[in-house]
Amino acid sequence: MTLNQKSRRRRYKTLRYEHLENRLLLAADIGLYQNPLDSVDVNNDALTSPVDALHIINKLNGTGLDSLKISAFYDTSGDGILAPGDALAVINDLNYPELSDDRFSDKIEIAADYLETNHDLIDQQLITFSEQIIGLNEKFQTVEDTIRAQLDLFLQFSIENTPALNTQLEKLEVAYHASEEFYYQEFADFDFGAVQQHLDPDSDPSVQEADSGFEFDPSVEYSEEVFEEIVEELDELDDEYEIPDYSGEYDGYDSYIDTYDPNTTELNDYVLEQVTPDDYEQWVLDGGDFGDMLDDLDEDVFVGDVDIDDYVTDTFGDPAVAVNYMQSLIDHGFVGELFYADLSAIGGETTGSGIELSDGSMLEIELHNDPLLVSLAEELDGQKVLIDGHITTVTAIEIPERSVLNVVALVGEQTIRDVSASLTTMSDPFMTQTALMLNELADRVRDA
Question: For the chain, what is the radius of gyration of the CA atoms?
């Protein structure tokens, strides 16, 4: 990490907070999210600089980045509203860096960078411990770089499908927090006592000085006394740090932790596998909508307004994987009988609408007052339908936790069958196979 990165906060020229018009923008309007790696790193470049505040100010003034994509992590406060206070949080972080809490990993990184820089000066009997610290830091930095790269991709996604975006960002948040937990568990296994005994045979490990926080100054010249100071401060850090409990905050967090086996898989490989969207998820995150696709097939391709090859290429990218995309779309759908009610229970702890799945279970649905989805729900109430969306866990008072399906697309059996029938008359191989797959899907909906 260079000196202008987070744990080495660069002293930029003090910024003045000038009056901004009291504008408030809601998350649903602009795709508003907070950076899980660093709340004030608006553009996700691993730095905190005046540019981060400028992004927010420009957005408030209506001159921000691409409004059709996420573009930046504007919500530094995490309250779902873009306001002048979000820019102020960046400015305060720049002007008063000493008030910001460095992460646990930042402190390890300071020690690791120092030890790596002075590697040739370290006594051979201390090299093993030094390399353990350096290696652990490199492992975590690799994981953080992977997550940051995925966040860069996230910023390029369309703002169209909020449920899919929320699901993807939660994957990245879980991966980061779980990695921190794995990171600390490995750090806690280090034998600080043995190293301290080697450095000072007369020391009594049962006697501990009062914790003063991690205060090591990496600018000092190396000596064995400095090495001893690093070990002591890392030992204190081990004693005072408590792993945050995220099991109640994220559905599936414990499963994520339990599934990872360090004996068979590198942590970075595991994280990459967990956070990389599959073909279908990528399509949805880029703004794809199953219902819109059916409309396009029926209204544009079938009547000849759009060339088939052009449509397949524009929609799916590589025509060779178009059928696989279609199968993924079909496999992700929820099928069952829709019940729609324009009401909420006291406290708003139910949307009043849901779908009865083929196994008899009920799943609550959220339409987010989307006019098209509401209109379709009214029309299809009591009928067998396909719903495309993402399940999230909602917390409240009367019902502490409940699963809700955030709807992206809602399609009735007859619509699917009609599109299938239209495509059957076309001679194109892709359209013929798509028609068969859609007909199979319509049968699934009918039999649900």
Answer: 27
Q: Which residues partner with 393 through β-bridges?
A: 403
Question: Nearest to residue 31, comparing CAs of 174, 152, 158?
Answer: 158
Alpha helices (H) along 276-321: 279-285, 290-296, 308-316
Tokens representing 200 are 């000072």
pLDDT (tens digit per residue) in 161-180: 888 898 899 999 999 999 99
**SS3 state at 338:** strand
Compute the mean pLDDT over every residue in the chain, rounded to the nearest whole number: 83
- Six token digits for residue 266: 């590198």
Q: Model's pTM, two decimal places?
A: 0.79
Distance from C-alpha of 448 to C-alpha of 444, rounded to nearest angstrom: 6
Distance CA 162, CA 244 (A): 27
In the chain, helix, strand, coil percent, each to 5?
A: 50, 10, 40
Q: How many CB atoms lie within 10 A of CB 345?
A: 12
Torsion of CA 430, 417, 371, 382, to 10 degrees: -150
What are the strands, taking DSSP E only, across 347-446? 354-357, 362-366, 384-395, 401-412
Amino acid present at 387? I
- Amino acid (one-letter) located at 176: Y
- 25-26 and 354-357 beta bridge pairing: unpaired
Q: 3-41 b/e with 16+ CB inside 10 Å = b? A: eebbbbbeeeeeeeeeeeeeeebebeebbbbbbbbbbbb
Backbone φ and ψ for 131, nearest 5 degrees, come out as -70, -25
Q: Which of 39, 98, 119, 33 is nearest to 71 (CA)?
A: 33
Q: What pLDDT is attached to residue 15?
A: 40
